[in-house]
Amino acid sequence: PTLMLFPTIWLSPAKWLWTTSIAQSLVIALASLSWLKWSSETGWSSSNLYLATDPLSTPLLVLTCWLLPLMILASQNHLSPEPLNRQRAYISLLVSLQTFLLLAFGATEIIMFYIMFEATLLPTLIIITRWGNQTERLNAGTYFLFYTLAGSLPLLVALLLMQNDNGTLSMFTLQYTQPLHLLTWGDKLWWAACLLAFLVKMPLYGVHLWLPKAHVEAPIAGSMILAAVLLKLGGYGMMRMMVMLDPLTKELAYP
């Protein structure tokens, strides 16, 4: 249903653009409340091997769906003086960002989660750099881009090594494997590589300098999505990875 918003955005008459976009996204948000009922029980609720919901991801999925109509509503007066194509492009970026977030929170394959985790960077970067209100928006976009990419590359290497060792990156099966047993320096580096991308996204103090710049320079919808969902991706990713890093995490926490 989210993808059906793109024809609505680009084919609606100019005077109905914002109204139809808000109405359709609100219908999707109301429909998303049914996920809360499906995931009320413990465990995964899945219709296929690649997308599923559980009690951890379902509230974030519902929050993502409800955020889109609120972002469109908050941006309507601010963007109405702009050319029509820029208005359509702006709403399309918000819809694509919601799509990537839904796929990230619903993914059961870690590599798919990683791809969607990184894909959210592109629409957010365009929103900040093209629709930011201040002259420093390009600098803020550069900080946001390089901090996030630099933190996520070690995670990609760790995921490729995990795929090579275990033969799978499915969350259904990896939680039952115990890949780490020894507290060697290699294990510690592997543990840090798995969590660094999420610590930058949260963000951890010391790698947080991109966040105040991004919040200040972003338009209102950009700040809404940053505060409401994108920062929660960091905590969500850590919770998913901690299950697979459990033996080493316990030994690091309680030596």
UniProtKB/TrEMBL annotation:
<keyword id="KW-0830">Ubiquinone</keyword>
<keyword id="KW-1278">Translocase</keyword>
<protein>
    <recommendedName>
        <fullName>NADH-ubiquinone oxidoreductase chain 4</fullName>
        <ecNumber>7.1.1.2</ecNumber>
    </recommendedName>
</protein>
<dbReference type="GO" id="GO:0042773">
    <property type="term" value="P:ATP synthesis coupled electron transport"/>
</dbReference>
<feature type="transmembrane region" description="Helical">
    <location>
        <begin position="218"/>
        <end position="239"/>
    </location>
</feature>
<feature type="transmembrane region" description="Helical">
    <location>
        <begin position="87"/>
        <end position="105"/>
    </location>
</feature>
<comment type="function">
    <text>Core subunit of the mitochondrial membrane respiratory chain NADH dehydrogenase (Complex I) which catalyzes electron transfer from NADH through the respiratory chain, using ubiquinone as an electron acceptor. Essential for the catalytic activity and assembly of complex I.</text>
</comment>
<feature type="transmembrane region" description="Helical">
    <location>
        <begin position="16"/>
        <end position="36"/>
    </location>
</feature>
<feature type="transmembrane region" description="Helical">
    <location>
        <begin position="189"/>
        <end position="211"/>
    </location>
</feature>
<dbReference type="Pfam" id="PF01059">
    <property type="entry name" value="Oxidored_q5_N"/>
</dbReference>
<keyword id="KW-0813">Transport</keyword>
<feature type="transmembrane region" description="Helical">
    <location>
        <begin position="111"/>
        <end position="131"/>
    </location>
</feature>
<dbReference type="Pfam" id="PF00361">
    <property type="entry name" value="Proton_antipo_M"/>
</dbReference>
<dbReference type="GO" id="GO:0003954">
    <property type="term" value="F:NADH dehydrogenase activity"/>
</dbReference>
<comment type="similarity">
    <text>Belongs to the complex I subunit 4 family.</text>
</comment>
<dbReference type="InterPro" id="IPR000260">
    <property type="entry name" value="NADH4_N"/>
</dbReference>
<dbReference type="GO" id="GO:0031966">
    <property type="term" value="C:mitochondrial membrane"/>
</dbReference>
<keyword id="KW-0472">Membrane</keyword>
<feature type="domain" description="NADH:ubiquinone oxidoreductase chain 4 N-terminal">
    <location>
        <begin position="1"/>
        <end position="104"/>
    </location>
</feature>
<keyword id="KW-0249">Electron transport</keyword>
<keyword id="KW-0496">Mitochondrion</keyword>
<feature type="transmembrane region" description="Helical">
    <location>
        <begin position="56"/>
        <end position="75"/>
    </location>
</feature>
<dbReference type="GO" id="GO:0008137">
    <property type="term" value="F:NADH dehydrogenase (ubiquinone) activity"/>
</dbReference>
<dbReference type="GO" id="GO:0015990">
    <property type="term" value="P:electron transport coupled proton transport"/>
</dbReference>
<dbReference type="GO" id="GO:0048039">
    <property type="term" value="F:ubiquinone binding"/>
</dbReference>
<keyword id="KW-0812">Transmembrane</keyword>
<keyword id="KW-1133">Transmembrane helix</keyword>
<dbReference type="InterPro" id="IPR003918">
    <property type="entry name" value="NADH_UbQ_OxRdtase"/>
</dbReference>
<keyword id="KW-0679">Respiratory chain</keyword>
<feature type="transmembrane region" description="Helical">
    <location>
        <begin position="143"/>
        <end position="162"/>
    </location>
</feature>
<feature type="domain" description="NADH:quinone oxidoreductase/Mrp antiporter transmembrane">
    <location>
        <begin position="107"/>
        <end position="248"/>
    </location>
</feature>
<dbReference type="InterPro" id="IPR001750">
    <property type="entry name" value="ND/Mrp_TM"/>
</dbReference>
<keyword id="KW-0520">NAD</keyword>
